[in-house]
Please model this.
Amino acid sequence: MGQYTTHVFVCTSGDDCPVRGDVEAIVKYLRGEAVKAGLKDDVRVNKAGCFSQCGHGPMMVVYPENVWYAGVKESDLPEIFESHIKNGTPVRRLVYDPGVKGANKTQDAH
Model:
């Protein structure tokens, strides 16, 4: 097993995710919740580059489960943190699964 039990990557760059939501606030919130929950040494939240899924953002992925979330809103974060990051149960209604591996950019992506 690696250094952390759970590793969260939040897309904070590229042309799409940063204009679809406050990605810096997502990172800040998740890091703060990890500290408050006493999980600072178990949960790592990282800023990440583009996931090549433009048009679906803001996006984040949680490992080791390899669960991707799309269209993440700040109002979704308490549920994602409590259910998935803290307790290991992904939030199914927010899971991103385009059914096609690799880049999945929409036509309306910035």
